[in-house]
Amino acid sequence: MIYGYIRVSSDRQTVGNQRFEIDNFCRREGLCIDGWIEETISGSAPYDKRKLGALLRRVRAGDLIVCSELSRLGRNLFMIMDILHLCMTRDCRVWTVKDGYRLGEDIQSKVLAFAFGLSAEIERQLISQRTREALLRKKAEGVVLGRPPGRLNDRYKLSGKEDLIRRLLAKGVPRCRIAARCRVNRSTLDRFLKRNMMG
Predict the structure, then answer these.
(1) What topology is assigned to 2-127 in CATH?
(2) Where is pLDDT greater, at 32 or 121?
C-alpha cells in the first residue's frame, strides 16, 4: 500500500499545496496513492494521538508513506526518530518530496533521518532563542508588547450595543450590571462610554 500523508498546523493553512506536491511526485515516480491521510493538528501533538498514529499501527512490510517533508511527521528530533524507527522495524518506507529522502531499512537511511531531525531541532531552537532575545530587547527599549488591554473588547464586544447601553443607563441600571450583561469588564465599559461620549 502507498499512503499520502498530509498535515497542517491550523485551519488557516491548506492541505492543497502538499497534496499537489505529492501527486506530482507520484506521477513522476510512476506511483499511485492507495489512501490519503490528512489532518489539521500541531506537529508537537503526540503522533499516537493523531491520524498518523493510526496509520503507523496498520502499515505492513513493503508499504510506503509519502509526505512533502519529514517535518510533517513531527516537530522535534525524538518524535521524528521514533516514527522512523517504528517504520523501519516494520519494513515500511518513508519518502519525502521536498527533502528527497527515501528512508528504508539501510544504515544510510538511519543516518540521514538522524541528521535531518537533529538539524531541524537545532534550527527551531535557534529561531526560538532569537525570538526571545528580540522580545527582551524591545521590552528593554520600552516597547509595550501585545495589544492594549480592552481595545479589541471595546471595538467588537460593545459595538452595535450603544442603544441597549443607553436604555439601561436611562433606567438607572448600575454600570457593573450593564458590563455583566454585555459580557465585558466594567473598565472596558467605562472606556467605551468615555470614547463614545455616553458617560
Answers:
(1) Rossmann fold (3.40.50)
(2) 32
